[in-house]
Amino acid sequence: MKLKTILVGFVFVFAFAKAFSQKIHVPVDTTIVSKHSTMIKGKTIPYTATVGFQPVWDDAGMPVASLLYTYYKRSDISNDETRPLVISFNGGPGSASVWMHIAYTGPRILKIDDEGFPVQPYGIKSNPNSILDVADIVFVNPVNTGYSRMLPGEDGKMPDKKMFFGVNADIKYLADWVNTFVTRNNRWRSPKFLIGESYGTTRVSGLAAALQDSKWMFINGVILVSPTEIGFEFDGPVEVANRLPYFTAAAWYHKMLPAALQQKDLPEVLAQSEDYAVNELLPLLVKSGYLEKDKKENAIKKMAYFSGLSEETIRQHNLEVPFNYFWKDLLRDRDGLTIGRLDSRYKGLDVKEAGDRPDYNSELTSWLHSFTPAINYYYSQELGFKTDLSYNMFGPVRPWDRTNNNSGASLRRAMGVNPNLNVMVQSGYYDGATTYFNAKYIMWQLNASGKLADRLSFKGYRSGHMMYLRNEDLIKANDDIREFIETSSQGIEKGAKH
User: Which InterPro entries does the protein's record reference (predicted)?
Assistant: First the structure.
């Protein structure tokens, strides 16, 4: 009996040790293709979905990483010579492509209510607003996001993280990767568009120039969704003044503004707040502590008027109320709740009403309810991709080298070189992380010469960072992309000339 027990235990330990020694396999170069159809704008659209791993090569031609991508191609069009290709990235910089993939432009989106809040059972449904009717789309996961991973060399060692984790390293290897993808899929003739969200806007701004400079691949359009600063530095009085229009938007949504403003529609209120922020508040902030007392008190009253905060709060912060404090304080005396950072329509419930920042990001925790189960289900059950790899919603990419971020200046230069390159900015008014007014400011910096206005456009939406989670804005934002693609494709057959 004892011998039998010992043998069983030995077998168990051996099996456990063997299983433990086996590493999860990361495919280097593979594809899975499936056929589908969906209804978009009332028309049946057949398409293929390709889930693939495509390598990142080092200078010696060895694979050092493998990136997962999902490529949707309309299958009832035989000639893709004039068929646009949209190359999509999310941000983070450690964020997977899941957000825009299954909530914005792709043919399948997650089940949520019309305002973007999670519902159960979790899952996926058809997206009748996808842009797949007018363009093919590839969603790319950079290294350590989604299922994408670094690969060990022949010596078993992992490559240097500096090859991937930094503003310029990221742009360089992704330019190589995109070049390979376009070549493999015979899309060199197609009009090409880059879309990036949040940090993805830094990525695609730099990519537009890198593809043009190093690959001679000229892009037709860049879409900046909830853009970061893309390398344009603004701090001090400019940054502080730029906060106010967002404060106004969030306060208007929660009905915290004075009646004279609250009874007006949002665009009209924001126009007043923007005008005050740029033309009156900014010059006052420049003087800081040397501002005359009467002017300071008047500024406090006006800032309270446009922000929903108390005059005392603004006075105590020397006119510089931090974002964290605003999210904590706006509803403190009314509901005792906090508001979200990425989407200030969302409310949070903290342990204490006291404090200077919320306990958690109410909007992000809500979103993760829906996105995480949906993407895992979708790859496994609908696209036929099965793996023991963990899908990294937010992957380990630290430390991230943010030095020498010239992506915005590079995009501006690329527009000068390429007369066919157009840029559209999309922002949600209730986004407190990458505010809509900062997005406008960035667009203004792109047009430093004053000669690019006809190739730059701004679109605002009554939602937050991921404006497409609200159904009304999902429809509008996708239609705006359709129009942008159509407009950017007009006249290109006549030649690229200024």
Answer: AB_hydrolase_fold (IPR029058), Peptidase_S10 (IPR001563)
Q: Extract the runs of DSSP E, i.e. beta strands, from 58-154.
A: 63-74, 85-89, 108-110, 124-126, 136-140, 149-150
Comparing CA positions, the residue from 293, 298, 310, 195 lying closest to residue 258 is: 310
What DSSP assignment string belongs to 127-164?
A: -TT-GGGT-EEEEE--TTSBT-EE---TTSPPPPGGGT
pLDDT in tens, the chain (498 residues): 444 434 434 443 333 333 344 577 888 899 999 999 999 999 999 999 999 999 999 998 999 999 999 999 999 998 888 899 999 999 999 999 999 999 999 999 999 999 888 888 889 999 999 999 999 999 999 999 999 999 998 888 999 999 999 999 999 999 999 999 999 999 999 999 999 999 999 999 999 999 999 999 999 999 999 999 999 988 899 999 999 999 999 999 999 999 999 999 999 999 999 999 999 999 999 998 899 999 999 999 999 999 999 999 999 999 999 999 999 999 999 889 999 999 999 999 999 999 999 999 888 888 888 899 999 999 999 999 999 999 999 999 999 999 999 999 999 999 999 999 999 999 999 999 999 999 999 999 999 999 999 999 999 999 999 999 999 999 999 999 999 999 998 767 666 666
pTM above 0.90, yes or no: yes
